[in-house]
Amino acid sequence: MLKTLSIKNYALIDDLSVSFNNGLSIITGETGAGKSILVGGLSLILGKRADISVVKDVSKKCIIEGVFDVGNYNLKSIFSENEIDYETETIIRREILTSGKSRAFINDSPVNLNQLSVISDHIIDIHSQHQTLELTQNNFQFEVIDSISNNLSIIEEYKSTLDLYNTKLKELEELTQNKDKLIKALDYNLFLANEIESSSILNENLDTLEEEQKNLANFNFIKEELVQSNQLLLDEKYGLIATMNNLKNSLKRLSENSDSYEVVFNRFSSVLIEVNDIANEIENSSDSLEENPVKLEEINGKLSSIHNLFRKHSVSTIAELEELYKRLSDSISISENIDQKIEQTSSECEHLRSQLDGKANLIHNNRKDSIPNFISKIEEIIHDLGMKNAKFKIDISKQDTFYLNGKDDIAFLFTANKGSDYKLLKKSASGGELSRIMLAIKSILANYRQLPTLMFDEIDTGVSGEISQKIGNIMKQMSRKMQIFTITHLPQIAAKGESHYKVLKTQENQKTITNMVKLTSEERIVEIATMLEGDKISASAVAHAKQLLN
Fold first, then answer.
1. pTM above 0.70?
2. In the chain, which residues have pLDDT < 70?
3. Domains along the chain?
């Protein structure tokens, strides 16, 4: 529901802030007072394109802000889909800047007009004789029928299945189109994969191979250096270990005579142990080192193959080559099993199509079953609203195409006079008739789902006092479940509201300003009496106003 509305610097409004209650709120005022300005301001919140011409003072920006309680509308998922922070008390603000550009915010998050429209459409719904044209549109007609048919949850399931079905159909199409291409590529991919596999490269460690190749290629140099190292370490007279043993004995004697040298002795002993270990390792390496030209040639061959494959496939590591091999293997597998895959995907499509047909049939049957009762209710209401001879008909026919909401085409047919043929609603109903039909439909829908705040903009134009009384009764009944605003010139309707607001023009500083005030009980009597009789109200008009209010 709309809790507060603030309008600044818009048309004839300087600075307006009004709070609203639930139930039925009446808005009245003289012709030209600015009631349409209020609707225009709300339309900007709903995503209508802004125009600098509506700004009162072009040197300042125009701001329109509405505070809404959206806790009962189940809008969390819609907010999430549009990447907007959800708040139970949602604030929608529209600004028209001095440059003529506009911007919009929902809960202080900037939004585009599409996001604004998506959210606001679920919050407030404005109906005038022009806007009732949506009644003639298929989307709205399906929405009506599906709401009373309890189809909404089934349609959501249907949509999910349809999305999956379309995905599988696209996959099947791609498989069929790519079949020849995959088969043609099979031989080449097999050759590449076999080349990599036969080289046994994937099992090799490049670092190990390169290290081994380096050792074998430099055999003579390494051998000479190992021999020389051995001599330097192990020579009995001048070798490092012999010298270190002599030093160790000297340090041992020192430590036996002075405890202060024991630490040095122990440290040196550890060093000697490490040197001896190194000497043993060098000696073992020297003994085991063998010249192996055959092995060298083998490794050179492997490395050459590896680098050739690297260049061929534009990779630099065995891991990258392994990834390429996996892709080739996957492609080969797909190519070899393409017919099986096509058959499997085709079977999945048929299964999903069968599911869709089942859901579409259920949707269709629910629609057909609900239509007679719906027509009966519609005709009952519009007869009460003065359309005594009006008849309503809904044609629904099953098609072969899967639409977003089933397989049906729908047509709302109408005749206002006895003996006249049924014609499409948009061709046979006047603006006033469409308004009353829309009111009837909304009153029925209110029993099936939570509707957004409704604003009726003078949809009672041209009706009699008796009919206006019935229109008011319908709105009052609807307002028990939702918030309703109605802009009216008829006292019979004005008297039905829980709250009554008057739009009026005043002159301030030689400027015309539109304002809106909530009427007290006494002010309301005067306003309805004025609507009955004009500015010079009589005692009987006051009495009549009181009677209407009671």
1. no
2. 129-133, 199-200, 202-207, 288
3. 1-123+452-519 (3.40.50.300), 177-338 (no CATH), 520-550 (no CATH)
